[in-house]
Specification:
Strand content: 15-25%
Distance between the termini: 62 Å
Number of strands: 33
Structural class: alpha/beta
Mean pLDDT: 90
């Protein structure tokens, strides 16, 4: 144990699998047994480990080790399970460099190029894996070891390039070379290239395919290169002992060893752990999920300071867990908070070298463990950590099963755009590449970006003197750099809070910094806009009618009414309604066809001081009856052919067609105001799809706020001709009718939006306000006139493809995505979709004097990029639900 530097407290060194496998290898060698790695993980001190080993030997619990022996090299030898998977992936994408393993080193000083070449050649010939190729024989891959090679180092002179540009050019060429694919069938599968920048500065790139190497192997390569070069430089023979076995011997042993009862027991555990339908981690993506992707990759680095690293390490010791376990628990908490999943799968690589014979071999021994954690039941971080510890120990106790065999056994759902089983990986690299010591040279390692994304996200945590270095490698088809940087910030904050407040439930651990919390809660909701004193809906129209009495206010088929005419008729009806006792807070049903009389009716009710209740003639009789019973409306306005649709009730029925001659005797002057901005303007019923329909009670002040916001964002040209095609039973109609009438535009009535091409006034429509499905059909039938400059879309999710199709129309200059429930007066948020954009449309930001929050189940604000439930506040909020105090209290929260 002293040989590998194990201190009395094993967890001082983190207890990750690289160190554990070293300990296990030496124990197994010493006692000729097969001791599972779990034994090491469960031993908090060296003394405890010694006691376990003694106990195992005493009771004969440990099985005898099956030695790895050399096998004949005749013919093709079988691939290891890991090699077989990489070969298969290469068949799928033969030109991919995703599994290239490059190491780039700056060499400063006097370099003996010939000696460097001899040293690399010595290593290539020493390790058969580096001379192995993988041809296909009768459709099946085999590994064939080539004889010792006269391997050559490629030297590239950059003397023909300006000296100031050579280093940048060398780096560019190195990246290009690192991403050059290998031919697995022909080889060679190791390349070395050296760029001479000037006499005392070289850039060395070693590139090896993963099928013959792994992270541990790259460390061996660097160690041996240092030893051989140094010995040759000093005139000494190679200090490296002969290798007792080679990787091909291990491949044969693995195939024989992983069979029978031992394999069955290991597989049984994983089938229990990963059986059934596996959850998919869908990070909040910046782009929609595509059935196939390019796997473009990028990396964001994010250092964690030494004090935090030490704090996490100290916390881990106190809790009796490894450093890795604490990091894993925090990372899975982050994924839980980002996705809402309570079943989180994360992959992690392990060394896979539980046999001493393999410790000094170059080859692919690394395995992948799937760490599945249950985060249900709102655990505290301490409780989660206990779950993570138990799960991690069990996984390591069953690490013999190659991940490739596991995938084959599990047969998970296949999706070519995703890796099987898990989508996110955590890698703790607490055994970094050893320093290369070459006589007369200063060596500096460079980090080269991967050639392709193997997963949606990989978090690499490297232990450095100054703390942990976090590198977030991500698929750019899924995520943007800002999203990943934000995730890195959240992880750092979460990790700090997890070890500071481990008694807190993971759902309550803070992700946001104070600055981000202020931005989300305050800055993004700073929508205050000072409007003139509140007005009632009809007063906006009255003021406009006074300014432009002769302008056309309303068009229906061939009929056109000016502002003066429309105002006069509405006033006559208002006076009649006053005579019927209608005043502030009076509810008046409106059961009418789409016609000029319908708009007169709406304005007349408002001018009388009442609030209108729209009743669609197409509604079933039972629904109309329910609404009238619920509202106890004192008056119902209707038309001749619809009067029979009004159910028996106590309301006064006014047939506008029959009674208009009498109504027309009333004054055309504006009646004195009896309602104010706090009184009801209208009552819109929800669809009832989730139960009994609810009457949403909207006051004048809320509707007035919408009108003021529209004035700020829509020009006179845009409002010149607004198509009003939405039923007045839906709140989109508030925009279509009252916004243009408030600001001097023209309302152009239609029964539905698809009538637009046939309308007499189609060429005068400048703004369409509709739902995406209706626009889709309108575009299909080529029904959008060139006069249309603005399209407002709401009520359904909007796809970017539809927005861009709309922009292809000759007149359209703006496509807006709007969102809002009836409970918040038509619109709560808005977004202008950019022409040519490839982004999925969002619902945007809150409109004026509106606040929007995303909260979790405990009413805590979620950080940017996380999933939450939408909460809306501000001046647009309805009074509540009519006659539903309990439901109002439930939905209209403090």
């Amino acid at each position: 144990l002293a040989e590998v530097g194990v201190e009395d407290n094993f967890f001082e060194l983190g207890g990750h699998s690289l160190l554990a496998t070293q300990v296990v290898s030496r124990l197994n060698r010493a006692f000729q047994i097969e001791m599972p790695v779990r034994r090491v993980f469960e031993s908090p001190t060296v003394a405890a480990l010694a006691e376990q080993v003694t106990s195992m030997l005493r009771i004969g619990e440990a099985p005898r080790a099956q030695a790895i022996t050399r096998v004949p090299r005749e013919g093709g030898l079988p691939l290891s399970f890991a090699q077989q998977r990489l070969w298969f992936l290469d068949q799928l994408e033969p030109e991919s460099a995703a599994y290239n393993m490059p190491v780039a080193l700056y060499l400063r000083g006097r370099l003996d190029v010939s000696l460097l070449e001899q040293s690399v050649r010595h290593i290539v010939n020493r390790h058969e894996a580096l001379r192995t190729v993988f041809p296909s024989v009768k459709g099946r891959p085999v590994q064939v070891v080539e004889p010792p090679l006269l391997w050559q180092l490629t030297l590239v002179e950059l003397s023909d390039i300006a000296e100031t540009e050579r280093e940048a050019e060398a780096l560019r060429l190195a990246v290009e070379e690192a991403h050059r694919p290998f031919d697995l069938a022909r080889g060679p599968l190791v390349r070395a290239r050296l760029w001479r920048i000037h006499t005392e500065l070289h850039l060395l790139l070693l590139t090896i395919h993963h099928i013959v190497s792994d992270g541990w192997s790259m460390g061996i390569f660097v160690e041996e290169l240092s030893a051989i070069y140094s010995a040759s430089f000093e005139g000494r023979p190679s200090p490296l002992a002969e290798l007792p076995i080679q990787y091909a011997d291990y491949s044969v042993w693995q195939r024989e060893h992983l069979a029978g009862e031992a394999l069955a027991a290991q597989l049984a555990y994983w089938k229990r752990q990963l059986g059934g339908r596996l959850p998919v981690i869908e990070l909040p993506n910046d782009r929609p999920h595509l059935p196939a992707t390019t796997f473009r990759v990028a990396t964001e680095s994010w250092p964690l300071d030494a004090s935090l690293s030490e704090k996490v390490r100290r916390f881990s010791r106190e809790r009796g867990v490894t450093f890795f376990m604490t990091l894993l628990a925090a990372f899975q908490t982050l994924l839980h908070r980002y996705t809402g999943l309570e079943d989180i799968l994360v992959g992690t690589p392990i060394a896979g070298r539980t046999r001493l014979e393999t410790e000094k071999l170059i080859g692919l021994f690394a395995n992948t463990l799937v760490l599945r954690t249950d985060l249900s039941g709102a655990p505290t971080f301490d409780e989660l950590l206990a779950r993570v510890r138990e799960m991690t120990l069990e996984a390591h106790a069953h690490q013999e099963v190659p991940f490739e065999m596991l995938v084959e056994e599990l047969q998970p759902d296949r999706d070519l755009s995703r890796p099987p089983v898990f989508q996110v990986m955590l890698v703790l690299q607490n055994a970094p590449l050893p320093e290369m010591n070459l006589p007369g040279l200063e060596v500096q390692q460079l980090e080269l970006e991967a050639a392709a994304a193997k997963f949606d996200l990989i978090l690499f945590l490297r232990e450095r003197a100054g703390g942990l270095q976090a590198s977030w490698e991500y698929n750019t088809d899924r995520l943007d750099s800002e999203t990943v940087r934000r995730m890195a910030r959240h992880f750092q904050t979460l990790l700090e809070n997890s070890v500071t407040h481990p008694e807190e439930r993971i759902s309550r651990l803070e992700l946001m910094s104070e600055a981000e919390r202020h931005r989300v809660l305050v800055e993004w909701n700073d929508t205050g806009s000072a409007y003139e004193s509140a007005q009632c809906l009809h007063q906006f129209f009255e003021r406009q009618a006074a300014r432009t009495p002769d302008a056309v206010a309303l068009i229906h088929q061939t009929e056109r009414l000016t502002y003066a005419e429309l105002n006069g008729r509405a006033n006559q009806l208002a006076h009649r309604l006053r005579a019927e006792g209608v005043g502030a807070e009076s509810l008046v049903g409106v059961l009418m066809r789409r016609s000029t009389e319908m708009v007169v009716a709406l304005l007349g009710v408002l001018k009388a001081g009442g609030a209108y209740v729209p009743l669609d003639p197409a509604y079933p009789a039972e629904r109309i009856e329910l609404m009238l019973a619920d509202t106890q409306a004192g008056v119902v306005l209707t038309q001749e052919d619809l009067q029979e649709r009004v159910p028996a009730c106590d309301a006064r029925i006014i047939n506008l067609d029959a009674e208009w001659p009498d109504i027309a005797r009333h004054s055309t002057e504006n009646p004195p105001a009896v309602a104010d901005e706090r009184d009801l303007a209208y009552l819109i019923y929800t669809s009832g799809s989730t139960g009994r329909p609810k009457g949403v009670a909207i006051e004048h002040r809320s509707a007035a706020m919408l009108l003021h916001w529209a004035r700020e964002h829509f020009t006179d040209a845009q409002l010149a001709g607004v198509l009003a095609s939405t039923s007045i039973c839906f709140d989109l109609s508030i925009f279509e009718i009252f916004v243009p009438l408030a600001w001097g535009g023209t309302v152009i009535l239609a029964t539905n939006v698809l009538e637009l091409p046939e309308l007499e006034a189609a060429g005068e429509v400048t703004l369409i306000n509709t739902v995406p499905s209706a626009l889709t059909e309108l575009l299909r039938i080529k029904g959008v006139p060139e006069s249309v400059v603005t399209v407002n879309l709401a009520g359904e999710p909007l796809k970017n493809t539809l927005a861009q199709r709309a922009y292809a129309e000759p007149g359209i200059e703006q496509v807006l995505n709007l969102y809002g429930p009836s409970e918040d007066t038509t619109y709560s948020t808005w977004a202008l979709i950019e022409k040519g954009s490839t982004q999925a449309p969002s619902i945007g930001r809150p409109i004026a004097n509106t606040q929007v929050y995303l909260l979790d189940a405990e009413w805590q604000p979620v950080a940017q990029g996380l999933i939450g439930e939408l909460y809306i506040g501000g001046e647009g909020l309805a009074r509540g639900y009519l006659n539903r105090p309990e439901l109002t209290a439930e939905r209209f929260v403090p």
